[in-house]
Amino acid sequence: MSFTKHVADSLERLYNGEPWIGVTFKEHLIRVDADTAVKRIHDSNCIWQIVNHLIWWHQRVDRFLHHEAPEQDGDLPDFYLPENHGPDNWHGALGRLEHSFGTMSATIRQFPDAELFDTLAGTDNQAIYYMQGLIDHDAYHLGQIVLLHKYS
User: Fold this and answer.
1) How far is CA 89 from each of CA 33, 37, 139, 141, rounded to the nearest angstrom?
2) What's the predicted TM-score (pTM) here?
3) What is the pLDDT of residues 114-123, one digit of tens each?
4) Do residues 90 and 37 lie in contact, with contact meaning Cβ atoms separated by under 8 Å?
5) Which of 11, 51, 53 is CA-nearest to residue 32?
6) HEC sequence for 45-110
7) Element of type H or E holding 147
């Protein structure tokens, strides 16, 4: 199995599969309603902000891998929390998260293995750095979501 297929499969499993850590985004987020998604523990980010942060990073890495500018007009800021905390907006955020996992997995799956160790334009890092980083990053934030949900 190629490295890119391994990373793409790992992202898909983290979202809605059987990852080695035994929990997925979908299984936890499906039980989180809009009111719970905005609850904080002390001064922590809320689940909604973490979801938007994941989308922000998926979009950024996707653009790096496509040799595009990482930030573009109309992008939401990192850790964005909308003023309208209604269920429709929450379901929209969950749909965007699912889409971002699919897009990111597809981009990585199609990325040429021969370019894994190339430094990406506009960065100081190789493609492999961002791909592996996404797995670590997403698993870390999944743990936060699980704990925030548990204690909200």
Assistant:
1) 11, 11, 24, 21
2) 0.95
3) 999 999 988 9
4) yes
5) 51
6) CCHHHHHHHHHHHHHHHHHHHCCCCCCCCCCCCCCCCCCCCCHHHHHHHHHHHHHHHHHHHHHHHH
7) helix 127-150
